[in-house]
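Bit of a strange request maybe. I'm writing a small parser for structure token strings and I need a real example to test against, not something I typed by hand. Could someone generate the tokens for this chain?
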Amino acid sequence: MAIEHPVHMNECGLPLNAITWLETHHRGKLAERTQMIRDLHLKRGSWVVDAGCGPGLWTPLLAEALGARGHIIGVDVSAEALVTARQRSRGTWYDGQVSYKRSSMEHLPVPMGSIQTIFSANVSQYLPQPVQTFAALGPYLMPGGQLVVKDIDFGTMRFHAIDPTLQARVFQAREHWERRRVSEGYMYEDSWVGSKLAGYLRAAGYENVRERSYTIVRQAPLTPDMRAYLQGIAEWFVCEDAPYLSKDDVQSWCACFADGSSCALDQDTFLYEETEFLVTGIWSGAARRYMADLQAVESEMPFAD
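Reply from user aminoacidic:
Good idea to test on real output. This should exercise your parser:
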């Protein structure tokens, strides 16, 4: 998912939720993302909606899994991201398998009950009401269709070459800030969402919910893409004035990742890991009845003056 007006830029001027950043992040984790799609065992020739597709980074992975007769509909709220996605797919081997449309997650541009799989990666962290959004996606699925949601969880992130007590303070401060940043005029964000996804899908009415976790480990020497990703994330942890951290902690943290001979990312002993979560759930007839009953109850409720 791309954000047209990102709030935070790191010291290099890179918006951490803009298109260039998403591309860098994707290349840095391409091996694990390829395995995630393989593990889904998508039905060859089926139709998939990529909800919150951003610049279309997952499109070739999905197209390869679906085969030549499969089709992907990429949906995003960002016009800029969709333009980039169309440009990226133009003239490729999968060009004829994909179409892109501007739409919100809750109002997909497809008929109800017509899609076999809805796929959504790195979007749920920006959803203020994820249960309601996931429930709204269900009716677009065929009976027995599946919702696939993938996201990060920074509660699993570790930089093993950095003072663990400093790291704990930085992470706790960011988590605390995310709980109240909306009240300060910032966009909603939950970077600890990954481990919550299975519960959200169950609450939204999905059955046979299954969680897969993928531990991503990188050590020195880092690729340029992974180095840029980790440096950007480190700066992001102390962005927006880091209101719950002392100035000394902010300076100490930034010094660990700043370019130069002492940068932790370039040390021979550097080791990093994080876990990402891929969760699937099945939309059943019972879930359809649940949604219909809920809508009927809501329609009978009196409106407040």
